[in-house]
């Protein structure tokens, strides 16, 4: 990259980018046409077991059982496609998600 003398470290020509690994935070919620569940904040890595225990059993099961004709939809993220997750959601009506297009429109 070429520039005028002294402009190499000019902040207006610098793009800051975070490159170190940091712990992720996930915020999760159930959304419906006229209501939502409480927000769930997860600070550790989400595994299939944690997804079932901390989200599906704690929030989705109770929430969906209170709705008539509810359809449960999730993407194909690894925790969502684990066997423990698939066994749990088997008793809900689900909307399948394409493996080719993992982000599905509602």
Q: Could you give a quick summary of the protein structure above?
A:
With 106 residues, the protein is α+β, with helices and mostly antiparallel strands.
Structure report:
The protein is elongated. Helix 1 packs parallel to helix 2. Helix content is 24%, strand content 9%. The model has no long low-confidence stretch (mean pLDDT 73). The longest helix has 18 residues. The protein contains two helices and four strands; from the N terminus they run ββαβαβ. Strand 3, helix 2 and strand 4 form a beta-alpha-beta unit. It has a two-stranded antiparallel ribbon with strand order 1-2. It has a two-stranded parallel sheet with strand order 3-4. It is an alpha+beta fold and 106 residues long.
- Overall mean pLDDT stands at 73
Structural class of the helices, strands and pairings? Answer: alpha+beta
Identify low-pLDDT runs.
none
Strand content: 5-15%
What count of helical segments does DSSP give?
2
Order of helices and strands: EEHEHE
Cα separation of the termini: 45 Å
- Report the count of strand segments: 4
The helix content, as a percent range, equals 10-25%
How would you sum up the major sheet?
2 strands, antiparallel
Rg from C-alpha positions? 21 Å
Oligomer: single chain
Strand ordering within the main sheet: 1-2
Shape, per Cα inertia axes: elongated
How does the SSE layout of this entry go?
Elements: E1 26-28, E2 40-42, H1 48-65, E3 72-73, H2 83-89, E4 94-95
Helix pairs in contact: 1-2
Protein name: DDE_3 domain-containing protein
Organism: Trichonephila clavipes (Golden silk orbweaver)
InterPro entries: RNaseH_sf
